[in-house]
Amino acid sequence: MLEKRLRRPIEPVFQISATERLLNRGPERDWGKLLGGLDQLGRDSGRQVIRAACERGVQRLREQLLAIINEERAALEWPIEKSERRIAAVKETIAEAGRSMRELSFLILDTNVGYAFTSHLTGDVGIPVFFVRSHFSMVGSQDWRWTTWLLAEPYVDVR
After folding, report:
1. Do 111 and 62 lie in a common domain?
2. The Cα angle at residue 29 between residues 28 and 33, in degrees rounded to 5
3. 119 lies in the same domain as 67
4. How many domains does the chain have?
5. Would you give per-residue pLDDT tens digits along the chain (159 residues)?
6. Cα–Cα distance between 96 and 118 in angstroms, integer?
C-alpha cells in the first residue's frame, strides 16, 4: 500500500540499535546491511555529482562556443563600415590606455620561485609588487620619482 501511494518501490528498512552499536554490545541486527547500503549510496551519488558537473561544464562550453560563433558570424554579416568603426574605436581605446600609462607610470615586478617535483608536477609561489611613479616630484632636480609601491596578493600555483 505504501509503494502505491508513493508511486515508487520501498527500499528495505534496516533494524539496528544505535545505543547497542555505540556500546558495542547486543546483536548486530541489520548493521552490516546498513553500512553496505550507505557505501552503495555514496558510490552512486558520487557518480551522479560527477556526471552533473560534467554536464554543466559541457553546457557552459557549448554556450561560450555559440557566443563566439555568433559574434564571428555577425562580424562577417556587418557592413564593412561598421567593422571599420569598431576597429577605429578599439584603436582609440588602446591609444587612451597608452596615454594613461605614460601619465601614471607604473611598473609591475612579479617575483616568483618554482620547482619541478616530477615531470608531471610543478609548483610556483610568488608575490607581485607594483611601483607607481608620479611626474609631480617634490625634489626640484628630478622630473619624477617613484612615489609608492604596493604588494599584491601572494599566489601559489601547482600544476
Report:
1. no
2. 95
3. no
4. 2
5. 778 888 888 888 888 888 888 888 888 899 889 888 888 877 777 777 777 877 888 888 888 888 888 888 887 887 888 878 888 988 988 888 777 666 666 667 778 888 888 888 888 898 888 777 655 555 555 555 556 677 888 888 888
6. 45
